[in-house]
Amino acid sequence: MTRFFHRLGAALALAAATAGAALAQGAYPSQPIKWLVPYAAGGGTDSIARQLADAMQPSIGQPVLIDNRPGASTNIAVGLLMQAKPDGYTVMQAENAALLFNEHMFAKLPYKPASDFTYIGAIGRIPIALVVRSDFQAQNLQQFVGYVKASGDKASYASPGIGTPHHMAMELLKQKAGLTITHVAYKGAAPALQDMLGGQVPMMMLDLGTALPYLKSGKLRALAIALPQRAKALPDVPTFNELGYPEVNAFAFHGLIGPAGMPAPAVEKLNAELRKALQAPRVQQVFGEFGFEALPGTPKEFYDMARAQSAYWGQVIRTSGVQLD
């Protein structure tokens, strides 16, 4: 009889724990979710966030509110995230800066990406391409490398700013191809692109979300894509890998994070809703229009990918000497 009651007690305890976990999952979310975007409204990151928030909101059962907090290489938004309660009601769309670059570019960064974030799920990547004006004399990457080497230290390239994926992608190409090209940093992709089209600078690394309209109109020409395989949006443009530079891989990487210590039910719920949203036909259509490639996966897969990419880019950044403080 005693053994029976022990078994009954264990069974009841297991049932209570299971019910409690189910209740906890069912209770989240019970209020609106704030989605921090570390860039201004109207840009590519903001557009991605709003598409996903709209797709997730009906099944998540609560409003998903976009809160744009640009500035300081995304550190303003990260600061707000770290001040928030780790209850699943404040999340942030993170990119290369917060996930991969800043820990190597700032001597005194007030957070550690490896331990101060909850990794909810990868969102995807926007491929980066080497683009030139349509009248640029080099017709392919081989001719481009020859042009730059023949120019001595007179060749220059534009970027949306120091420490951006575009900047670091060109620094990577410079290292792997042995090139010297002067960096001209702008405050955003729009003014950099405007000067490039106007003839002030002849080349830049540019994300496909920004580049595609100009490539399709013939104002720009893509010489190579910085991905291991060809981009779906530009299947006729070869990769650096195909052209003899297998280590030139670079992209704008997006993922969803929260403060450290988020409860597992909230992480699981958000990850499931994010993966579902990435498969939604409308989201896939819009993302496909500007070259965004979804990377749905588990929180651990997201964490592992981010840490591997951070280690890779840390070496590139140390070699280039780029610092932000």
UniProtKB/TrEMBL annotation:
UniProt cross-references to CDD domains, sorted A to Z: PBP2_Bug_TTT
Membrane-spanning segments: none
Signal peptide: 1-24
InterPro entries, per the entry: BUG, Bug_dom1
Pfam families (alphabetical): TctC
Keywords: Receptor, Signal
Similarity comment: Belongs to the UPF0065 (bug) family.
Protein's name in the database: Tripartite-type tricarboxylate transporter receptor subunit TctC
Native source species: Pseudacidovorax intermedius
